[in-house]
Amino acid sequence: MSRILIAGGGTGGHIAPAIAVAEALLAVEPSVSVSFVRTPRPVDGIMYAPFGGSARILDSPRVDRGPLSAPLLPFTASRALAKALGIIRDVRPDAIFVTGGYASFFCAAAGWLRRIPVLLHESNALPGRANRAASRFARRVLVGFECAAAWFGRKAVVAGNPVRTSLARIARAEARTSLGLAPHSPVVLVLGGSQGARALNDIALAAPEGIQVALQCGERDFERVAAASSGRRGFHVTAFEPDPSVLYSAADFAVARAGAMTMTELSHYAIPCVLVPYPLAAGDHQTPNAMAAAATGGALAVQERDADAGSLWNRIASILSDAELLSSMSAAISRLFRPGSAEAVARMILTEAGWGASS
Prior knowledge:
The chain is α/β, with parallel strands linked by helices. It is built from 14 helices and 13 strands.
């Protein structure tokens, strides 16, 4: 029986591919033992909840802050590495798969020190700093976008971004009805990522009559948004959905941040969109994601400073009223999705772990 340790957390964008690959590992080889390493953040607890006690917590410092700006970094980093080594000693994995975030960096480093094969997944078009640092410990770096491969040289494998098999496709009318929306009127899904986004929430609240909205607004802004939309017909609001199947299935169009996994899931459901990159994202990594999606013709990329709600809704209404344009954008955005990515990644991990029947 192979034992696999998967490390990734802090945002839904790190957790979703970790879960997708875990599901694929168990589908390919039901006897495999999968354990997780996550951060203490609430989103980790919510999304990893179905896996119970198999998710261990590693609270780690950022590794991109030097000693001058973070005097305690050498001590906190040493403590995080020691804890990662302890987790590896307990789990005894045959391979380690990391998806990003600073907790995964220390698991990759610990795996390298123990000579355990490490595979790293980078979902963004512009790799994050933690993954660029962790790549030195990896045998293979699996990238979601072809343009990211250049950062990792011969280690890079273009694998696509894995999507959870648990994301179901629900009949559109059924999905809308379950959200309290009219089954035959257009729905725009507004997603601010796992943390929510006040700017996108305000855009959602400005939606015109005749367009229904399904909004994931984040915990921090939920009370304000719920109060502002109270009693409004055709408006569904939720703080966070760990399984957003019903939200995706209900939507004709989306307004979203440009996190790689949000984009991948939108492309999986063939939902055209307006992407508004988070302006404070590390290294502005969401802008290259948005530009890659826009290049397909299935998305519009708009910087937050230019995201005037009235203009956006006029553009969205125009697209929704043009069935041919909406259909062509849907087909275009779907080309971002690489089917079979999760299974392909799972098989690579099992091969590195010494699994014999990889065919």
